[in-house]
Write a structure and sequence with these properties.
Layout (H helix, E strand, L loop, with lengths): L2 H30 L5 H32 L13 H10 L19
Helix pairs in contact: 1-2, 2-3
Length: about 110
């Protein structure tokens, strides 16, 4: 992979992670509403669909990086996710299940 392609991939990954964070913020606001409006629910469902698209794209990018940077070795197959994907996956967790949950004082922020 050329240097320019690597920079573009890194930039795209950063954009996607930023978009995931924005989705999390909007979802947190949505979940705080006791009785959301119908259009809030539609927006929530659309964000969940987009979250899935972003996750798929990040996974595909990670798979391409792993296959391009490492030769295929039978011993490496099935040994888990890369560190970047674990980090992205932990960012998708609801706030109460994240490792940095201490910022909420151990309480559910949706109540």
């Amino acid at each position: 992979m050329s240097r320019l392609q690597g920079e573009q991939t890194t930039c795209r990954a950063a954009q996607l992670v930023s978009e995931l964070r924005a989705i999390e913020l909007w979802d947190a606001i949505y979940k705080r509403n006791v009785i959301p409006f119908w259009y809030d629910h539609i927006a929530f469902m659309s964000r969940q669909k987009r979250r899935g698209e972003i996750s798929s794209e990040l996974q595909r990018m990670s798979d391409q990086n792993d296959s391009a940077s490492q030769p295929v070795d039978n011993a490496d197959v099935g040994q888990g996710q890369s560190e970047g994907m674990v980090r992205v996956a932990s960012q998708r967790l609801p706030p109460e299940r994240r490792p940095d949950h201490a910022t909420y004082g151990g309480q559910d922020p949706h109540i």
